[in-house]
């Protein structure tokens, strides 16, 4: 049997080419995901530094100043400290639930970033049910908190987990009704379509002006979902020591700490996307990317501008959330539930009915 060496070389080169194509395809999938994760990590570090600086300014004190220039490395130093701390487990608790709880809280929030458009064509997954996917995923996070509270075998932790579940249910319904009103106005549940529907008329086309009641309800409900003051009942230190975090230390406590800021950032991004026009630069009747399609060399510049605009609007809402923390006192648990069920739910339902009526009459 005579073997043609040229054919063997062709087969080998072909198999190598196919292998390189597979590697290139995997890298093409992983690069956007890793870039998003890196950006989110930097964003969380910036939020932690901003909160400490703004809080110090409101309370007339100095704030972080030693770790790096202007204290910008303070959050990184705190994260390193938590990584090096001992990881403690409760001797009589359920260690599996205790260990899984923080991971569920972080992963469920991270998945929400997949449907957020940071700019034109800058989204990991442009799904037709984008906003409702976020609501469905975000409702999983309180299950992790409840598991953590139950697995700690601690009455303070368990009460904190129960409060987290009750608070999430109470405020997720008004939040969903507000999102449904936005979907009716935009005739789509895709986050990209919602932004594009607002960009047709510039600044006055934002849903902030068409849905002012929904915007206020969404703002309050998102703060309650993030468990920020005045809605931080699940971890009220005067009542529950630290709530569901009481028995945690080391990296697991750090996961809860990161999850709270991740949730705050994703809520701020959705406020930007749903009500503040997303990446739109607010020039009436001009779609911003028409300016940059004249020359393909300007596409990178256009994407940079869109990301900057999205983050500028997002951090404006973050400033409001941080200032609210040091302005309003904490509510009682009965006041928190009354606000959600007796006020926000009927108002958001009425807002949805009004929006539906206007949409039907405009057909």
UniProtKB/TrEMBL annotation:
NDH is composed of at least 16 different subunits, 5 of which are encoded in the nucleus. One of its GO terms (molecular function) is oxidoreductase activity, acting on NAD(P)H, quinone or similar compound as acceptor. The chain crosses the membrane at residues 26-50, 97-116, 128-148, 255-277, 297-322, 343-361. Signal peptide: none annotated. Keywords: Chloroplast, Membrane, NAD, NADP, Plastid, Plastoquinone, Quinone, Thylakoid, Translocase, Transmembrane, Transmembrane helix. It is an enzyme of class 7 (translocase). It comes from Dendrosicyos socotranus. It is a multi-pass membrane protein. One of its GO terms (biological process) is aerobic respiration. PROSITE patterns: COMPLEX1_ND1_1 (PS00667), COMPLEX1_ND1_2 (PS00668). GO terms for cellular component: chloroplast thylakoid membrane; plasma membrane. InterPro entries: NADH_UbQ_OxRdtase_su1/FPO, NADH_UbQ_OxRdtase_su1_CS. Belongs to the complex I subunit 1 family. It holds the Pfam family NADHdh. This is NAD(P)H-quinone oxidoreductase subunit 1, chloroplastic. The lineage of its organism: Eukaryota, Viridiplantae, Streptophyta, Embryophyta, Tracheophyta. It is found in: Cell membrane; Membrane; Plastid, Chloroplast thylakoid membrane. NDH shuttles electrons from NAD(P)H:plastoquinone, via FMN and iron-sulfur (Fe-S) centers, to quinones in the photosynthetic chain and possibly in a chloroplast respiratory chain. The immediate electron acceptor for the enzyme in this species is believed to be plastoquinone. Couples the redox reaction to proton translocation, and thus conserves the redox energy in a proton gradient. Its EC number is 7.1.1.-. It catalyses: a plastoquinone + NADH + (n+1) H(+)(in) = a plastoquinol + NAD(+) + n H(+)(out); a plastoquinone + NADPH + (n+1) H(+)(in) = a plastoquinol + NADP(+) + n H(+)(out).
